[in-house]
Amino acid sequence: MSRARAYTNIALVKYWGKRDPQQMLPFNSSLSLTLDQFYTETSVTFVDDVADQFYLDGEVQPVSAKITHVIDLVRAQSGLQKAALIRSDNHVPNAAGLASSASAFAALALAASTAAGLKLSRRELSILARHGSGSASRSIYGGFVVWHAGQDDQSSFAEPAIANTEQVDFPIAILAVLVDQSQKKVSSSAGMAASVATSPFYPVWARTAEAAIPKMTAAIAAKAVDKIGALAETNAMQMHATTLSADPPFTYFEPETLQIWEKAREIRRKGLNCYVTLDAGPNPKLICQLQDVEKIIHEFQKEFPNLTFTSCRPGPGAYLVNE
Ligand code: DP6
Questions:
Q1: Residue 188 belongs to domain with CATH number
Q2: pTM of the entire predicted model
Q3: What is the mean pLDDT of the segment spanning 288-298?
Q4: SS3 category, 43
Q5: pLDDT tens sequence across 147-165
Q6: What's the alpha-carbon Rg for the chain, to the nearest Å?
Q7: What CA–CA distances, in Å, run from 209 to 148, 151, 198, 321?
Q8: Are 5 and 92 in contact (CB under 8 A)?
Q9: Start and end of every Mvd1 C-terminal domain (predicted)?
Q10: Is the pLDDT reported for residue 144 higher than 60?
Q11: Protein residue with its CA nearest to atom 7 in ligand 1
Q12: Atom 12 in ligand 1: which residue has the minimum CA distance?
C-alpha cells in the first residue's frame, strides 16, 4: 500500500483548451502556484479482486473513466494485472471553494505508481497525472510551476518555473474568497471544449497565454508580486473572454465575483497590491503581498462582512506519507 499527499494549485497563466482531449494535450502552456492549504491524500493497494474500487472521504464512489485511465497506464507500465483499491480524502475546507482534481490526480499518480513498484521521475509523474486532469500535472511540484504544452505525450509535462526552489520564502499570499458553494454549472472540461469549438477569440487566447509565460517567469524571478498579480488578472480575464464570446455564450461570474473584482481595483487605488484571478467557478482568488493580508481582508470585510477568506502560501510538491 502506498499513500501520497498532493496540494492544489492556482493557475497564474491558465490552461484553457485541449488540443488533444485523448492525450490531454493543451493548446497553451500554463503556469501555477502550488498552495499550502488544500490537499488530497490518497492510498492505493493492488489486490486480487475483479474490479477497481474507489472510496472518497470514506464513501464508496463509482470509478470514473479518468481514474481507470490513470490506473490502466500504471498497470501497463508495471505489468501488474491486479485491481486497485483506492481511498482518497480531500482536505479542502468547505469555505475554500477550490476544485480538487489537481490535487486528486497528482496524489493518485504518486500513490498508484509507487504501489505498483514503479519509481517514476517527477517528470514521468507529471505526465501520468496529466492524463487524469491537466492541472494535476502541475501539482506534482511545489511553488511556481510551468506546464509546457509540448507536442506529444512525452513532451507535455510540468516542471518548476524557476529551477531548484520551491519558493516557500516568497512574499506572496493567495486569498481564496468564497462567494458560492453550489456545484459548478459548467465543468472546466466542458467549458474549455465550448470555448475551443465556438469562440472566434480562441486562437488569440492561446497565442496570448503562451506569450504571457516568459513575462510571468520574469516577474517571479524578480519577486515582483505586483507584476505577478497584474499579469495573472489580465490572463484570467482573457480566459473568461473566451466563454463570453462562445456560442452560446456562458460565464462563471456571479454578481459577487464582479463586486469583489471592483473592490480589488478600489484597494489598488489606495496603493495596496491586490489582484484577482478566477477559474471555472465564481470564487475569486486574490493575489497579494504577504505583508498586506490583514489590511486587505479588513478592507473587504468593511463592505462584505459575510465573506470567508482562506489565506494560502506557496506549498510543497506531492510526497509519500508514511503510515
Ligand atoms: C480554469 O485541469 O480541471 O482551472 O484537464 O479537463 O481535468 P481537465 O481540466 P482542469 O482545468 C483547469 C482549468 C482552470 C485553469 C488552470 O488550472 O490552469
A1: 3.30.70.890
A2: 0.96
A3: 97
A4: strand
A5: 999 999 999 999 999 876 6
A6: 19
A7: 12, 17, 18, 35
A8: no
A9: 175-307
A10: yes
A11: 133
A12: 135
Query: Is any ligand 1 atom within 6 A of the Cβ of residue 23?
Result: no
In this prediction, residues 265-289 reach a mean pLDDT of 96
Q: Cα torsion at 260, 265, 268, 270 (round to 10°)?
A: -90
Burial grade of 204 (CB within 10 A; 0-12, 13-18, 19 or more): middle
Nearest CA among 266, 269, 306, 300 for reference residue 285: 300
Distance of CA 193 from the midpoint of ligand 1 (Å): 11
Shared domain for 147 and 176, answered yes or no, is no
Would you say residue 156 lies in a domain? yes
What is d(CA 186, CA 188) in angstroms, rounded to the nearest whole number? 6
**Amino acid symbol at 11:** A
Q: 227 near 219, Cβ under 8 Å?
A: yes
pLDDT tens, residue by residue, 198-219: 999 999 999 999 999 999 999 9
291 within some domain: yes
Q: Is residue 319 assigned to a domain?
A: no
Task: Note down the domain range covering 11.
Answer: 2-166
Region 119-123: mean pLDDT is 98
Our measurement of the distance from residue 95's CA atom to the centroid of its chain's CA atoms, rounded to an integer in Å, reads: 17
